[in-house]
Amino acid sequence: MSGLSDKIFNVVHYVANKVQRPAVILLYHRVTKLMQDPQELAVSPANYDAHLAHLAAEYNVLDATQFLDHVINKKPFPERAVFITFDDGYADNYHEALPLHAKHEVPALFYITTSKLNTPYELWWDDLERVLLTTDPLPLKLDVNIAGQAWEYPTDSFSAITETYYALQQVLRFCKPDVIESVMAQLYDWAGTTAEGRPTHRMMTWDELKVMSQSPYVTIGCHTHRHPAVGMLSYDEQLSEIGESKRLLEEHLRIPIEHFSYPFGSRKFLGSKRYYNADSIKASKALGLKMVCANYHGQVHSWSNSYALPRILVRNWELPEFKNKMQQFFKY
Ligand SMILES: [Zn+2]
């Protein structure tokens, strides 16, 4: 976004937040320490502990039932209302985040991608990082077929490999799940490695998720089966990807799933490529989902679209920075 449109959005947000008290939805992915974190998805356990302590003391953290009640009934939010969400279903959500939620007695909603649960395999962007950034040595160039088209990427130096990683990551975001799987299979062969993932990047087991779902501080939502940009799929494919994750979660956890978040979920797009579209909203409604979160900056008001709510991505900020950011999130 340009500096000017940033400023315009800030003014629009500022005025909206003066008209009505906003709520803020926070988006986390992982609570752990990693050797490298090119997507910046991990918040350290110490920082997350401090975030929750601050939110518990200074903000009104709503649980999913309370938040949904405000959203569905278009009720203005209480002062300093915050809703905490996690995407993807990493094992550290169970091992690191859950005990901190119990310690601070703070609720959160965890959106789960189901295809890699209970397996030693990683989600594709982690898998891409594992193959390209942790395999040594690699061949000097990568020839790969992506949806019937031949591509060539340089991999003859560390900086070339890093650039290739970021470039492929952008391309695969808008590919269908079968294409991503075929690209990864070619990469394993090319690098001389296997699909077996790193224990540090695994998803929860069904047993872990079951315990998690029984915590009074936890609500579970779905996040598709294989984590595609649903906006690139036909309506029927969207129904199937979203519906499969909902069905599996309901079957294993024996609870109704009412919440969903779009994978990636940004409103930014590339040409005709979208992360979600009108069909995504239609499919969510057809599946009986009651509230859907997207992933773009903004606050929630009683007039917000409950099938594409804005969320604010939280990075690995230390407490002073987190405090400042939280104040800003309620203004702009
Ligand atoms: Zn995700």
UniProtKB/TrEMBL annotation:
Q: Which PANTHER family match?
A: POLY-BETA-1,6-N-ACETYL-D-GLUCOSAMINE N-DEACETYLASE, PTHR34216
Q: Which UniProt keywords apply?
A: Signal
Protein known as = NodB homology domain-containing protein
Q: Could you cite one Gene Ontology molecular function of this protein?
A: hydrolase activity, acting on carbon-nitrogen (but not peptide) bonds
The reply to whether Signal figures as a keyword in the UniProt entry is yes
Question: What PROSITE patterns does the database record attribute to this sequence?
Answer: NODB
Q: Which domain of life is it from?
A: Bacteria
A single Pfam family it belongs to is: Polysacc_deac_1
One biological process term in Gene Ontology: carbohydrate metabolic process
Q: What positions does the domain NodB homology occupy?
A: 80-332
Which Gene3D superfamilies does the protein's record reference?
Glycoside hydrolase/deacetylase
